[in-house]
Design a protein that fits this description.
By secondary structure, this protein is of the alpha+beta class. The protein is built from eight helices and four strands; from the N terminus they run H-H-H-H-E-E-H-E-H-E-H-H. A four-stranded mixed β-sheet has the order 3-1-2-4.
Length: 261
Amino acid sequence: MAVIKSVSDALMQQRHILSLMGIRQWGQLGTPVVQVRSLVDRFAEDDKHIKSMQNEIQEVQAEPNSVLIPPANPVVVDDEMCIKSVVKEPSKLINNTHQSINSAQNTPSNIIDEVSTAQSADLSSTAISYVLEGIRVGEWVLLADISLIGDEEKLVLASLKTALSRWASERKAFFSVESIRYPMNDDLGNSPTLAQKCLDGFILRLQMMGDITKFDLIKLAFLSELSDGVDYFGEVQTLPQLLAMHQDANAKKQLWQTVTV
């Protein structure tokens, strides 16, 4: 099993998958969201504080014979020179400063770090891999996992693609063959979440091809089993699988009549 180099690689892979689906901004469900004030608002507030402090300094300097009044709550020191209480006003300024710093620390960058931490906990010790080939023809999406089928089934699939391509060309119907593999490269680790999202994104891309106005009419069928660790939770039509078509010519006829109707 490949070892993940960094969580950022997994995030880049997930962002690539979602970008294929047209999703540019995203976040996982349950991710805490913090509303951060804009820089303009924070600068304006800081400017007000600075002006207020300057006015106070000018007022003090304008009183040449000002009388020093002891604070109502003076500093109390015990035998071990430990400060028990302090003057209130400076304390408020210090506390406000710390609160501003803590608020500024809740930035989108920190939120992304939390998402990365959550994703790293999702890494699985069980390797998930698949090589999917998808056929989009007319109003159908046909999928097969090449890594799970034998040579006879691959021959049936190749013959089916050739026949469907010829039929689509004659009827001026949409036809395309796409493929995807997971993991996308050997440097990325194995995450069940990314494997599932990669599958879902690939299927969605096939469904959105051609005339987008007919998206709701697209039907999906699997011509082979799916690899362990992933599944499809949408509506699926039942068609003969490649092994059945290899063993029975009637099964191949049944699929052809259903898809090309």
